[in-house]
Specification:
Layout lengths: L3 H17 L11 H12 L6 H11 L4 H8 L3 H19 L8 H22 L17 E3 L35 H12 L24 H12 L20 E4 L5 E6 L2 E6 L5 E5 L6 E6 L5 E6 L3 E6 L4 E7 L5 E6 L5 E6 L3 E6 L5 E6 L7 E4 L5 E5 L4 E6 L7 E4 L5 E6 L5 E6 L3 E6 L5 E6 L5 E6 L5 E6 L4 E5 L5 E5 L18 H9 L6
Antiparallel strand pairs: 1-9, 2-3, 3-4, 4-5, 6-7, 7-8, 8-9, 10-11, 11-12, 12-13, 14-15, 15-16, 16-17, 18-19, 19-20, 20-21, 22-23, 23-24, 24-25
């Protein structure tokens, strides 16, 4: 039995212990957006790829790998492998086992623990007020960083003159010891002078492969210095700068400028010099697409942070931050006259924005589908979108009417583009095909087949006579629009390109298959 005085004493002791020791409680489960925000803040240099974002959101919402693959248009095996890589990454970063089944609990607990620690620290520091990192919410589309409308048309800026490349840009390797035989072999390949005198033909492309830190750059520098006297001109150039894989590219309509997006950073390159002109890093999540306006003054970027940004790319100033979508923004395109900007999102809407004011002027609901890509017709009268379910939809810009819909593909439509004259439409899909359409009737004119994996992008040539397609089978194919024939297959040389393994001993079937994937042949 405990008398009242003893009870009070015990009760006070419990209160003191609760105030002095951590309390083990069940962490509240976060939603997907909160989890992704926490990971972006925590991972820092270990940033997630766009595919990993898709997997994590799907798993968080209880989807299977099969459903994630179906919804995103990727192959099931690819999603499964990428998921395994994601769990290994998170396990390494958090120093605890993370799996598909426990990821919600692990991340929710870590975020909860971080929040408790932050609150305890805020109690100690009474001179500072806690600052919320949550953006303001609103039911209406909003814009940020909105300058006067005339800021959209500043006077042209001229690019600084190119810096001439020189040997001084090489890394300082000091004295390179060893690798004498390797350097002699490489030099013979580059110059075409084989040690036995029988080679006779130089290689047009040489790739050095190896783990990080083994000295590939030092070896290549030494090689270039050795072979330089045998050539009239040697250029050392590298478009390096991104720390993640490059998701999107676009060319300036008039200048030798390339824009690229990798994770949350946009780089601008001078293609004549290889110089990086500038980079933009204001997005908070992976960028899906970048596109120049038709006059080349501005660049728009769509992003997984649910925003689209419009940039004066010459100055690096963000003219507009367009907010209003409730999920990832995929497609983005300027109208030919530069007045409108169209964005598409996984929230099953397409939004039209006034490029002069940054205001959303129209929201189009997409029934039972999402549009990964949208594009304006060259005359600006029509907007076409390609859907996750394989559909093509066309809206008339001059009237609020239901879209014309055709079931074009058997899977995710990755890109849609009009020909320069506006008479033909081309679409690419994860069903491994490219289709040509009559832009007026949406009648399928031709189906182009030949890729061995999903097709991720497609584009017309400047004269509209050819179409180029890029695929996950690691090839680019060039097609004749008039005949539908594949004119050329372009593939970057692989590590063992052309190596004949006929009669090779000591290789099992799995090793032979791996070598053939890397370019080897067996006659």
């Amino acid at each position: 039995m405990i008398d009242s005085e003893q009870g009070a004493s015990i009760q006070e002791t419990v209160k003191l212990s609760l105030n002095c020791h951590p309390i083990v409680t069940k962490a509240p489960v976060m939603n997907a957006n909160e989890a992704l925000t926490f990971l972006e803040r925590t991972l820092d240099s270990h940033s997630l790829s766009a595919t990993q974002y898709i997997i994590l959101r799907g798993v968080w919402e209880g989807d299977s790998y099969v459903k994630i693959a179906t919804d995103s248009g990727y192959d099931h095996g690819y999603i499964k492998d990428a998921g395994a890589q994601l769990w290994r990454l998170l396990s390494k970063v958090f120093n605890k086992k993370v799996t598909k089944s426990n990821v919600r609990n692990v991340i929710s607990r870590l975020a909860h623990q971080e929040g408790v620690e932050a609150k305890l620290l805020s109690r100690v520091s009474t001179s500072e007020q806690p600052i919320s990192d949550q953006p303001p919410t609103s039911d209406e589309p909003t814009t940020q960083s909105s300058p006067p409308a005339q800021a959209l048309h500043p006077r042209p800026h001229h690019l600084s003159s190119a810096v001439q490349q020189s040997w001084d840009e090489f890394i300082d390797i000091g004295s390179l010891y060893g690798r004498t035989e390797e350097l002699r072999c490489l030099e013979s390949w580059v110059t075409g002078h084989c040690l036995s005198g029988q080679f006779g033909k130089s290689l047009r492309l040489l790739t050095l492969l190896g783990m990080g830190g083994v000295g590939k750059t030092a070896l290549s520098v030494q090689l270039v210095k050795q072979v330089a006297p045998q050539f009239d001109y040697v250029a050392w150039r590298s478009l390096s700068g991104h720390q993640n894989y490059v998701q999107t590219l676009c060319h300036h309509p008039a200048e030798p400028i390339l824009a690229s997006g990798a994770h949350h950073i946009i780089h601008f390159w001078n293609l004549e010099t290889g110089q990086t002109l500038r980079h933009l890093d204001e997005h908070k999540a992976p960028i899906w697409k970048v596109v120049f306006s038709h006059d080349g003054q501005y660049l728009a970027s769509s992003c997984f942070d649910q925003t689209t940004r419009v940039w004066d790319w010459r100055t690096g100033h963000c003219v507009w931050t367009l907010q209003g979508h409730s999920s990832w923004v995929f497609g983005v395109d300027f109208s030919p006259d530069g007045r409108w900007l169209a964005t598409s999102s996984m929230d099953q809407t397409i939004k039209l924005w006034d490029a002069l004011t940054g205001e959303c002027v129209r929201t189009i609901q997409v029934a039972d589908d999402q549009m990964p890509d949208v594009t304006f017709s060259p005359d600006g009268h029509y907007l076409v979108g390609g859907g996750v379910q394989g559909r093509l939809m066309m809206w008339a810009m001059d009237r609020d009417a239901p879209p014309r819909i055709v079931q074009g593909h058997g899977g995710f439509v990755s890109e849609v583009r009009f020909s320069p004259d506006g008479k033909t439409l081309v679409s690419s899909s994860h069903d491994r095909t490219i289709k040509l359409w009559d832009a007026m009737t949406l009648e399928c004119l031709k189906t182009l087949e030949g890729h061995e994996n999903m097709v991720s992008g497609v584009a017309f040539s400047a004269d509209g006579a050819m179409v180029a397609s890029a695929s996950h089978d690691e090839t680019v194919r060039v097609w004749d629009v008039a005949t539908g024939e594949c004119r050329e297959v372009l593939r970057a040389p692989r590590p063992y390109e052309g190596m004949n393994i006929e009669g090779a001993t000591g290789l099992d079937n799995a090793q032979k298959a791996t070598l053939q994937i890397l370019g080897a042949v067996e006659f």
